[in-house]
Design goal:
Keywords: ATP-binding, Cell membrane, Membrane, Nucleotide-binding, Transmembrane, Transmembrane helix, Transport. It is found in: Cell membrane. GO terms for molecular function: ABC-type oligopeptide transporter activity; ATP binding; ATP hydrolysis activity. The chain has helices at 2-14, 18-50, 58-103, 107-112, 115-134, 140-157, 159-165, 169-206, 208-213, 217-270, 275-316, 336-340, 389-396, 419-425, 440-445, 449-453, 455-461, 465-468, 488-501, 518-532, 567-573, 576-586; strands at 350-358, 364-373, 378-382, 404-409, 412-413, 426-429, 438-439, 478-479, 506-510, 536-540, 552-557, 560-565. With 587 residues, it is an alpha/beta fold. The strands form 3 sheets. Strands 6-9-10-3-11-12 form a 6-stranded mixed sheet, sandwiched between helices. A 4-stranded antiparallel sheet has the order 2-1-4-5, with helices on one face. Strand 9, helix 20 and strand 10 (536-540) form a beta-alpha-beta unit. Helix 5 packs antiparallel against helix 8 and helix 21 crosses helix 22. The longest helix is centred in the middle third of the chain and has 54 residues, at 217-270. Residues 321-344 have low confidence and may be disordered. The structure holds adenosine-5'-diphosphate (ADP) and magnesium ion. Adenosine-5'-diphosphate is lined by residues 111, 359, 365, 383, 385-391. The site of adenosine-5'-diphosphate has 11 residues, from helix 13.
Length: 587
């Protein structure tokens, strides 16, 4: 039942290629006829020519036989090719859909899902669907035609002998169905454990440097061995059922042949069955069992495909609360001029009102946090680690949805804007900037044509051009794996330039200077000034020296606003800020 639901959904992906599938379906009866006709020709040759000694008709029959074989090969070629062709197309389509779906999932989803397991959905799970086409699932329809044809012809030739032969059928059907269920369960295990394996691989390989520096190779290898073993072991039941099913079908087909020889031999002696008919019977029964035997192979592929489909559709059905509502996909028209006018415009004001937020259940990270940031103001968020500073910035970009309260920009609730419009107004610079494989210019513009026009100017504004110009290829210098060929400070400057190139009216800097050495800090500080010019800015700062001249400093303590004021005011108040400041300057 459940299979049928999965299949019905899967068929929708095949629907665009129904013409090609139609061609295959038309070929199936042709194929069935060529298969059914061969034993019949053999019977005619034996009974009408060989036994009676009329040899003159034999060359024609032999030629007919050859013709049928050629026809069968040609049809097989077209059929196999077309099916795999459609298979590739369908796999391509599903990959595209899955990828763009994953792109729209929320930060909450990615918190819980290892990247490796997503990679395995997009690669190996989809590959299994391809195997389904390769194994010729559609040709099952043709197999059924052949099976029905054989039953018909056999009954027509000799009812009693047919009934004797088919006495093995109930057992065959029972075995096939029972094994099928067992295999399904086993396959689910296989796919799940392969997912675990890929998730582990992605993480371990990604963190190889840490693994090596801390001598964790052996433990990592042990864990890998454990996962590898569990994957291998999950495959064992599948192989067992597969082999057993094959063996049982093989045995039953031999039993059927034995029955034909035993009972059919008697019929020949009695004169109720011709010699040619006996030979045809044996040939038919082999043709009857071979698709059933192949069916066992097709079953295992099918079961694998079903398990994969379940996982693929399961992921496609993941709807997270933060997902873009469909009707908001286009940026509202009033947003457009903001992005267009890179010259004079008023940067947005932000208001956080009574924010309550928890990553898990009732574990509130923010407890009634409120803050008003005026247009063009530079506000610093400080406080001890884990206080909720980063969380505030994430909520502003709607990476997570607040549980209670509201955030608005220029008086408009951010939930009423499309994610695209919201995020195009906010530029975020993270502590650890993520660089992609590509040139520096690409890393600044991220391929956006508007941003691309501003790459060099943006780099100059933040002072990144100074080091870029010294590179052999300048802006066309390649960034290797996540920017490993640049220093932390250089990476940070590139990410500043990125923020400027996108020209946001609101800027969020999350500990952007924390990972930079004191020598480049001055450089970064200058870059920051260029970056913040003419924008509303929220700075999360670890080094209090960097925010001394902020318009306002807000101290967040355990999810609540503890203090607020200018540097001088807060120092005079001798509260939390004063203590944090003292701590840093004693060092
Ligand atoms: P800060 O930036 O002030 O150091 P954060 O906003 O990053 O603090 O974190 C506040 C609290 O939320 C911490 O207790 C942290 O453990 C928790 N937290 C942060 N991110 C997540 C997350 N993705 N999932 C669950 N808990 C998180
Ligand atoms: Mg933080």
């Amino acid at each position: 039942m459940y299979d049928r639901k999965l299949m019905r959904r899967f068929v929708r992906y095949i629907a665009p290629y129904r013409r090609l599938i139609g061609v295959v379906l038309v070929m199936l009866p042709i194929m069935a006829v060529t298969k059914l006709a061969q034993p019949w020709l053999l019977k005619t040759a034996i009974d009408n020519h060989i036994v009676t000694g009329k040899l003159e008709g034999l060359p024609l029959l032999a030629a007919g036989f050859l013709g049928l074989i050629f026809a069968e090969s040609a049809v097989t070629f077209v059929e196999v090719y077309l099916l795999q062709y459609v298979g590739q197309k369908v796999m391509y389509d599903i990959r595209i859909e899955l990828f763009s779906h994953i792109q729209r999932l929320s930060a909450r989803f990615f918190d819980q899902t290892p990247v490796g397991s997503l990679v395995s959905r997009l690669t190996s799970d989809i590959e299994v669907l391809g195997e389904m086409f390769a194994a010729g699932i559609v040709t099952i329809v043709g197999d059924v035609m052949v099976l029905a044809g054989i039953v018909g012809i056999m009954l027509w030739m000799n009812v009693k002998l047919s009934l004797v032969t088919f006495s093995v059928l109930p057992l065959l059907i029972w075995v096939a169905f029972t094994f099928r269920n067992w295999m399904r369960v086993a396959f689910r295990q296989v796919r799940a454990r392969l997912g675990n394996l890929s998730a582990f691989l992605a993480e371990s390989l990604g963190g190889m440097m840490v693994v090596q520096l801390f001598n964790r190779e052996r433990d990592e290898a042990r864990e890998f061995r454990r996962l590898n073993e569990s994957y291998r072991d999950a495959n064992l039941p599948v192989i067992t059922w597969d082999a057993a099913l094959y063996a049982v079908v093989e045995t039953l087909s031999s039993v059927a042949v034995a029955l034909i020889i035993w009972y059919g031999g008697g019929e020949i002696v009695k004169g109720t069955l011709s010699f040619g008919a006996l030979v045809a019977f044996i040939q038919y029964i082999e043709r009857f069992f071979s698709p059933i035997r192949d069916l066992s192979a097709k079953y295992s592929v099918m079961q694998g495909a079903m398990a994969s489909l379940e996982r693929i559709f399961g992921l496609l059905d993941k709807k997270e609360e933060e997902q873009e509502p469909a009707q908001l996909l286009d940026p509202p028209p009033q947003m457009a001029p903001v992005a267009a006018a890179s010259g004079r415009r008023t940067p947005g004001s932000i208001s956080f009102r009574e924010l309550w937020f928890a990553y898990h259940n009732e574990d509130y990270v923010l407890k009634g946090f409120s803050l008003e940031v005026k247009s063009g103001e530079k506000v610093a968020l400080v406080g001890e680690t884990g206080g909720g500073k980063t969380t505030v910035t994430r909520l502003l970009s709607r990476l997570y949805e607040i549980n209670c309260g509201s955030i608005s920009i220029d008086g408009t609730d951010i939930r009423e804007m499309s994610l695209q419009a919201l995020r195009s107004r906010i530029g975020v610079v993270l502590q650890d900037p993520y660089l992609f494989t590509g040139t520096i210019a690409y890393n600044i513009s991220l391929g956006d044509p508007e941003a691309a026009k501003r790459v060099e100017r943006a780099a100059a504004v933040v002072g990144a051009d100074r080091f870029i110009k010294l590179l052999p290829k300048g802006f066309d210098e390649e960034v290797r794996e996540r920017g490993g060929n640049f220093s932390a400070g250089e990476r940070q400057l590139i990410s500043f330039a990125r923020a400027v190139a996108f020209d946001p009216e609101i800027l969020v800097l999350d500990e952007a200077t924390a990972s930079v050495d004191p020598a480049s800090e001055r450089l970064i500080q200058q870059g920051l000034e260029g970056l913040m010019e003419g924008r509303t800015t929220l700075v999360v700062a670890h080094r209090l020296s960097t925010i001394r001249d902020a318009d306002r400093i807000v101290v967040i303590h355990r999810g609540e606003k503890a203090e607020e004021g200018t540097h001088a005011e807060l120092m005079a108040a001798k509260g939390l800020y004063y203590r944090l400041y003292q701590l840093q300057f004693k060092e």
